């Protein structure tokens, strides 16, 4: 799927989902009176079709929000995908490990807060985002500890350790033949 098709498909699906959520929420509104406020049922008696108007207006509002936010969210997802393409294997591994750690830390809170769905669900979502972010930051800070994944551009030496190419030196064969290696080492050009 091309990026353009992904953006369009995501934006359309996001718009449909926000429209459906808005429609469902507007239909589940309690039409009985709350305290001193007049009930929505009284408004329905005085203004015929008021409930239908509220449902239609809320649904249209959900559709507009989805149409505005969907393409922007799709563009952000594509940017995140492009950033993942540029990441090294160690960085990708660190991100995945951070996500797993964050989700594992969030699970007990999700179980406890799910008993109160009205308040618990948004708080759980916020905690999930926070813990996943902190897990990613912690794992990215430790990405150099993942020794089983080679650094980009690094080769293995004869003893199995990583050889960094930024410390390699190129010498003319005359230096080796003439035996001037000891002089070059004393000068500090070559370690050893």
Strand residue percentage? under 5%
What's the rounded overall pLDDT mean? 77
Categorize the overall geometry: elongated
Number of domains: 3
The portion of residues assigned to helices is 55-70%
- Structural class, from helix and strand content? mainly alpha
- Specify Rg, calculated over alpha carbons: 30 Å
Tally of separate helices: 7
Trace the largest sheet across and list its strands.
1-2
Unreliable stretches (pLDDT < 50, length at least 5) are: none
- How many beta-strand segments? 2
Question: How far apart, in Å, are the first and last alpha carbons?
Answer: 54 Å
Query: What is the succession of H and E elements?
Result: HHHHHEEHH
State the major sheet. Answer: 2 strands, antiparallel
Task: Provide a descriptive summary of the structure in words.
With 192 residues, this protein is mostly helical. It has three domains: 1-86, no CATH class; 87-152, no CATH class; 163-187, no CATH class. The chain is built from seven helices and two strands; from the N terminus they run αααααββαα. Strand 1 and strand 2 form a beta hairpin. The two termini are 54 Å apart. The model has no long low-confidence stretch (mean pLDDT 77).
């Amino acid at each position: 799927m091309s990026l353009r098709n992904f953006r369009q498909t995501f934006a359309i699906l996001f718009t449909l989902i926000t429209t459906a959520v808005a429609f469902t929420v507007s239909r589940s509104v309690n039409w009985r009176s709350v305290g001193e406020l007049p009930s929505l049922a009284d408004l329905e008696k005085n203004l015929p079709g008021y409930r239908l108007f509220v449902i239609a207006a809320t649904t249209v509002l959900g559709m507009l929000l989805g149409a505005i936010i969907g393409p922007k969210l799709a563009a952000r997802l594509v940017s995140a995908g492009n950033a993942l393409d540029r990441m090294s294997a160690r960085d990708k591994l660190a991100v995945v490990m951070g996500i797993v750690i964050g989700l594992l830390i969030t699970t007990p809170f999700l179980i406890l807060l799910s008993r109160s769905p009205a308040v618990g669900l948004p708080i759980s979502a916020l905690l999930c985002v926070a813990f996943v972010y902190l897990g990613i930051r912690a794992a990215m800070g430790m990405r150099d500890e993942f020794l089983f994944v080679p650094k980009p551009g690094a080769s293995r030496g004869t003893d199995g350790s990583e050889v960094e190419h930024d410390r390699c030196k190129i010498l003319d064969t005359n230096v080796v033949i003439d035996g001037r290696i000891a002089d070059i080492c004393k000068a500090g050009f070559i370690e050893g």
